[in-house]
Design goal:
Length: 357
């Protein structure tokens, strides 16, 4: 079985060199500022940018699907991952841009909390936390993206699915890794154990992001990170932005732990179905390796994430319990909306992207 070497996919985690297309006044102003180093007029530019953010937040009906605000937030977070080459100058810790990001987050986080349903009962032990998380993530009999892909998806729909997933998966594990220095004891050990596997356990060619890049390449897609940023809708950006927000804020360390637990608990069975869907249309191991890898790996990870990460964190820092459950529920809610969007579009014969591939 032959797979691409890490060298042949070396650009999988790099951002493209050209700026994304603006989706409104906020993202247009922000992208214009980032394309030049901070100037002597930066303070007035930032005042105008922040005024545009406030105006956009006032008129937005749903921040999760607001194209302009979600793109702007995605670009602001990208500065902390290693900015795109179109960014000129050192903007990562500029106080004015941090304020811009905070303005959007001050609406984004409450918007999530107001929409995400939490369990009606609270567990009282680490093991009970894990059991509740397994209940929350149990497979249902309703419409399912993974079942659609296993049985109905066309090649074009499979490519669209990969494009949606590329926004996170070409950087798989990075948002959750922000939590490592913010945890201690049992929870930190559990998170590091999971992340070690995600990053290939010392073997670059087995990094999950690299394997996924091979899947995209096998389907004739560009594996460069951000190559399809102009194609994905706001709700897909919101999924990645939610992870970045949880991971970058120490006060939300419970939420990022809960998110990872739910993410791992809803991975093994769907990935089996995803792999079957690609095999159904004749695609080989170069395409299905990523999904097959996760069937076994995430069956182990879900136990570690549920019991040793989320459960231990709830026992060691009980004040984080509600945020652990919130992070898990937010993962299910937002990713559920991404999947629902794809299913609704495909069932009507439409593309789920902003532009057809």
């Amino acid at each position: 079985m032959k797979f691409d070497s890490p060298q042949s996919l070396a650009n999988a985690g790099d951002l493209v060199g050209t700026a994304p297309e603006p989706r409104g006044p906020v993202s247009a102003h922000l992208l214009g500022m980032l394309s030049d180093p901070p100037s002597e007029n930066v303070d007035s530019d930032l005042l105008l940018l922040n005024a545009e953010v406030v105006a956009a937040l006032t008129t937005s009906t749903d921040i999760l699907t607001d194209e302009d605000l979600q793109l702007a937030l995605f670009v602001l977070y990208s500065l902390h991952y290693g900015p795109a080459t179109y960014v000129r100058g050192e903007w990562e810790w500029h106080p004015g841009l941090l304020r811009t990001r905070a303005l959007i987050e001050e609406d984004f986080e409450p918007g999530l909390r107001s929409r995400v349903p939490l369990p009606g009962r609270l567990p009282t032990s680490g093991s009970a936390v894990a059991e509740l998380l397994f209940e929350m993530t149990a497979e249902t009999s309703g419409p399912s993206l993974s079942r659609w892909i296993a049985k109905k998806a066309t090649d074009d729909q499979l490519r669209e699915f990969l494009v949606h997933r590329s926004i996170y998966t070409l950087k798989e594990a990075d948002p959750h890794s922000w939590a490592i220095p913010r945890l201690h004891g049992r929870a930190k050990v559990a998170l590091v154990e999971i992340q070690s596997d995600e990053y290939g356990a010392g073997r670059p060619e087995r990094m999950h992001a690299t394997i996924f890049a091979g899947t995209m390449k096998g389907m004739g897609l560009d594996p460069t990170y951000g190559a399809y940023l102009n194609s994905v809708p706001a709700i897909t950006l919101a999924s990645m932005n939610m992870m970045s927000m949880f991971g970058l804020h120490r006060r939300l360390r419970g939420a990022i732990a809960g998110h990872l637990a739910a993410f791992e608990m809803t991975s093994s069975i769907p990935n089996r179905q995803y792999g079957n869907g690609f095999r159904r249309l004749g695609h080989g191991p170069d395409v299905t390796w990523y999904f097959d890898e996760h069937v076994e790996a995430d069956a182990v990870h879900e136990q570690i994430a549920g019991r040793d990460l989320a459960g231990a964190l709830a026992e060691d820092e009980p004040e984080l319990l509600l945020d652990i459950l919130f992070g898990a529920a937010a993962c299910l809610y937002v990713d559920g909306r991404v999947g629902q969007h794809m299913l609704e579009c495909w069932s009507h014969g439409e593309t789920s992207l902003l532009h057809r591939l």
